């Protein structure tokens, strides 16, 4: 591996008014693409209720379903690599949004007519994930290119993460509605409604691809044209700065026990209802927003390195309160604490990823992060389930998560200083 560090940002700085319009565009694309995410968005929570309440799967079978359904996500870097090399309809990222937004809409509309069975859900999510990943690669590559060329990595990361959280908030409440429908035995109708809504979201993504706002696209300069696939692969593998950035992202995502084991712990031990589980996740996700916005204010004044260090130190013990809760109400307070302590770190890791991308290969780098995220989430979920069922209950999961988070500190300290020693602009 080479030790060279790319210049952290380009020379251009967009005026304030144009910068705001650029961030609005990135936020809009992020919002709708996140709504369509089969691993989250409007899909994951309702499907988890279908598996748990309609198909009556135990916790380890739900975790295994999620593990298998996420196979395209583990290979997300291939979609990013395609984004960096393709130029569909000579519109680059807009071409991907148009083409695969429409493909995803047709996919979900077709599955809306099928019965809600285990294999129907599996196949629908696998196909939907493929279309989603192409739209996500377009969004991630474009946002990273903007962050690099216009000195906006922290601001882009803030909008990216806040708009990543909002669809999850709505999905958790939608999941509670679906759970009530399931109790009435109307799973097929609920699943049909779910898929039709997501089909509509994918159609909106295709329409966004038609739009070409000048402040976004006229300020970006062309980067090096793709060389051979082998040369591009060699370039990114030798680009040292991506490794600490990906390491931070992977470790922060690998939280064994924070998904399926936590749901079963709250519902089976603390007797939380399905609506309570949705509320817990909504509080958890919403509580990230204030401290993520705080990062957005600080990133133009404080170096990314300092925000990475202190954000990580605060986030390491964030799951510890879950070891001491005894009621559903206490779990809601813990959810708020966990979210508040994770906002700065989460946004800082995204900004670090944006800065670390080699020019022209932003899609590949950001989708490598996506692949690592889903590998960490799904395999962490399986490990956490094993700890929960066989190694002392949920407290063992809290210990494991805290130990993994502590490993992030030395990774941050090993990051190239030339890349992160400056604030935005």
Which helices and strands, and how do they pair?
Elements (H helix, E strand, L loop, with lengths): L15 H20 L8 H11 L4 H11 L1 H4 L1 H10 L6 H20 L6 H32 L3 H31 L3 H24 L3 H4 L11 H9 L4 H12 L6 H10 L4 H25 L5 H12 L12 H29 L5 H29 L3 H13 L1 H6 L3 H4 L5
Helix pairs in contact: 1-7, 1-8, 1-9, 2-8, 3-17, 5-7, 5-17, 6-7, 6-9, 7-8, 7-16, 7-17, 8-14, 8-16, 12-16, 12-17, 14-16, 15-16, 17-18
Task: Compose a concise summary of this entry.
This protein is an all-alpha fold. Helices cover 74% and strands 0% of the residues. Helix 1 (16-35) runs antiparallel to helix 7 (118-149) and helix 8 packs antiparallel against helix 14 (274-298).
Choose one word for the global shape. globular
H/E element sequence? HHHHHHHHHHHHHHHHHHHH
In round numbers, the mean pLDDT is 87
CATH superfamily: MFS general substrate transporter like domains
CATH level 1 class label: Mainly Alpha
Oligomerization: single chain
What is the fold named in CATH at topology level?
Answer: Growth Hormone, Chain: A
Class of secondary structure makeup: mainly alpha
Share of helical residues: over 70%
Helical stretch count? 20
Beta-strand percentage? Answer: under 5%
Spatial separation of the terminal alpha carbons: 29 Å
Instruction: Please indicate the count of domains.
Output: 1
Structure summary, number of beta strands: 0
Question: What do these coordinates show?
Answer:
By secondary structure, this protein is mainly α. It has one domain: MFS general substrate transporter like domains (Growth Hormone, Chain: A, Up-down Bundle), CATH 1.20.1250. The protein is built from 20 helices and no strands. α1 packs parallel to α8 and α2 runs parallel beside α8. The longest helix has 32 residues.
């Amino acid at each position: 591996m080479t030790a060279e560090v790319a210049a952290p940002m380009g020379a251009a700085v967009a005026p304030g008014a144009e910068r705001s319009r650029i961030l609005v565009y990135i936020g809009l694309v992020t919002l709708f693409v996140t709504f369509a995410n089969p691993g989250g968005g409007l899909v994951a929570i309702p499907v988890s209720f279908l598996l748990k309440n309609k198909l009556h799967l135990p916790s380890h079978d739900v975790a295994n379903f999620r593990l298998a359904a996420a196979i395209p996500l583990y290979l997300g870097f291939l979609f990013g690599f395609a984004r960096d090399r393709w130029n569909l309809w000579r519109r680059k990222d807009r071409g991907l949004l148009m083409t695969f937004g429409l493909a995803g809409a047709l996919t979900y509309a077709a599955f809306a007519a099928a019965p809600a069975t285990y294999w129907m859900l599996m196949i629908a999510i696998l196909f939907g994930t493929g279309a989603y990943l192409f739209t996500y690669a377009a969004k991630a590559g474009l946002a990273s290119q903007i962050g690099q060329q216009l000195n906006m990595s922290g601001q882009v990361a803030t909008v990216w993460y806040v708009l990543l959280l909002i669809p999850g908030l709505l999905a958790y409440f939608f999941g509670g509605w679906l759970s009530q429908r399931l109790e009435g035995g109307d799973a097929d109708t609920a699943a049909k409604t779910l898929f039709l809504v997501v089909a509509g979201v994918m159609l909106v993504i295709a329409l966004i691809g038609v739009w070409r706002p000048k402040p976004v696209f006229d300020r970006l300069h062309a980067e090096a044209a793709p060389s051979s696939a082998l040369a591009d692969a060699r370039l990114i593998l030798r680009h040292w700065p991506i490794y600490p950035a990906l390491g931070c992202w992977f470790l922060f995502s690998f939280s064994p026990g924070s998904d399926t084991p936590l749901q079963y712990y709250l519902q089976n031990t603390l007797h939380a209802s399905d609506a309570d589980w949705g509320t817990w996740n909504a509080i958890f996700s919403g509580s990230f927003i204030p401290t993520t916005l705080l990062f957005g204010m600080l990133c133009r004044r404080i170096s990314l390195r300092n925000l990475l260090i202190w954000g990580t130190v605060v986030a390491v013990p964030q799951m510890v309160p879950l070891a001491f809760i005894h009621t559903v109400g206490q779990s809601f307070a813990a959810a708020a604490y966990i979210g508040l302590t994770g906002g700065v770190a989460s946004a800082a890791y995204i900004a670090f990823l944006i800065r670390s991308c080699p020019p022209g290969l932003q899609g590949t780098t950001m989708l490598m992060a996506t692949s690592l995220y889903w590998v960490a989430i799904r395999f962490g979920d399986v490990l956490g389930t094993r700890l929960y069922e066989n190694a002392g209950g949920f407290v063992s999961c809290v210990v494991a998560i805290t130990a993994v988070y502590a490993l992030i500190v030395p990774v941050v300290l090993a990051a190239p200083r030339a890349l992160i020693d400056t604030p935005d602009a």
